[in-house]
Amino acid sequence: MSVVSHLINGELVESKRTLDVTNPSTGKVIRQVADADTADVELAISAAQAAFPAWRDTPPAKRAQVMYRFKQLLEEHADRLVQLVSEEHGKTPEDAMGELKRGIENVEYACGVPELLKGEYSHNVGPGIDAWSNFQPLGVVAGITPFNFPAMVPLWMYPMAIACGNTFILKPSEKDPSASMAVAELLQEAGLPKGVMNVIHGGREAVETLLDAKAVKAISFVGSTPVAEAIYSRGSAAGKRVQALGGAKNHAVVLPDADLENAANTLMGAAYGSCGERCMAISVAVCVGDETANRLVETMLPKIAQLKVGPGTDKGLDMGPLVTAEHRNKVLGFIEEGVNAGATLVADGRSLKVAGHEEGYFVGGCLFDNVTAEMRIYQEEIFGPVLCIVRVGSLDDAMQLINDHEYGNGTCLFTRDGEAARRFTDAIEVGMVGVNVPLPVPVAYHSFGGWKRSLFGDLHAYGPDSVRFYTRRKAVSQRWPSVSEATTAEFSFPANQS
């Protein structure tokens, strides 16, 4: 059985331990992945440290040339990368291709790094004194990425980190490591020097070693809120810059004037696409008025019944399986708890079986009505194909409901009322907002991130914030006094005279 190795200093490195990688459509182990111990991680850190000085001094334009070649290779090898994502994660090929394309957008943005790293300059800020600032890389930085976007989320991080002059260590999810590894190997093929990009696989020991290592200057993380908070606390205590993106409970507010057919169609994709395993998935539809809720349920039920579910490697499907048996059981537990709490399960996908794939981790689309804010299925992130309908009396009630929630990742409003949309976008306490756009994921030249307990740290992911996260500003003041200029000691704080 093949083993996905570490990539350290440009070479494939085996590990003493391995973990199983399962195809979620069949429930069968298809390969193994190296499981890093502390020594493996320290080897990667040493390689990144050794490569940093030369890469830091490489002109940004030459770094950008590597990114241009990397982008071309990603496009040339897209079909193979999509197959790896579908095989190990379970998402459909169409969904995996969309993920990869959004990741490539971040590589395109990194190609502009010579412009993005331009500092500021002021001539003659004082008598014969010039001042400027520039952006300098941090050193060795690391990224810890989740299972749900094995190609895209790593591309949120290391293209810009590396383009800014840092060296990088990636710790992808051990559940679906092959796509992350294949993408990293393409970056090596693009001409990146050895040691600038390293990939280590594994679990908690690998993560904790990165968090505690003094040589690692920054950590970027995407995952659940409890883990994000723990990583932020531990990494910050170790003196690192930390950006930790956590969980979500994304609400879609449906007003009575909304185009219900359009809202239902877009909610189908936002709630059930990728089997709900997206941090931007809509998991709550907040309907203003009982009539709105009744109409939405009536419109969505036949669409849910027609969902095409099957093995992730097949084309033309709407959903594949959940990523692991453990995660499927967790989602099933949430559904059972919702029923016991008194919510109305109007669409029940628990009994779904896919012919020929009876051991796969499948759950069909589920729809709860009459969900209330006290229920656990409302409060917590389910991360599965489960949509909850909450009924409220007004837009103000809907906004209060959202603003009271501990998460503030994404939200959207379905309406034809411009005044309502403006009020919603201004006053809602959520980091990413859509109007008739259910998945308001920013493009690569804007930044991605939520509010409240969906993000720990000051800076969002990718876009302009990524340049700020992966660099530090240095301000320089310079004076060259003439030979004949007489100077005397000054003991007051220097200031320009009016």
Automatic annotation (TrEMBL):
Pfam families referenced in this protein's UniProt entry, alphabetically: Aldedh
Name this protein carries in UniProt: methylmalonate-semialdehyde dehydrogenase (CoA acylating)
GO molecular-function term, one example from the UniProt record: methylmalonate-semialdehyde dehydrogenase (acylating, NAD) activity
Alphabetized PROSITE patterns for the sequence: ALDEHYDE_DEHYDR_CYS
InterPro entries: Ald_DH/histidinol_DH, Ald_DH_C, Ald_DH_CS_CYS, Ald_DH_N, Aldehyde_DH_dom, MeMal-semiAld_DH
Residues that span the membrane, as ranges: none
CDD domains in UniProt: ALDH_F6_MMSDH
Keywords from the named record: NAD, Oxidoreductase
PANTHER family associated with the record: MALONATE-SEMIALDEHYDE DEHYDROGENASE
Source taxon at top rank: Bacteria
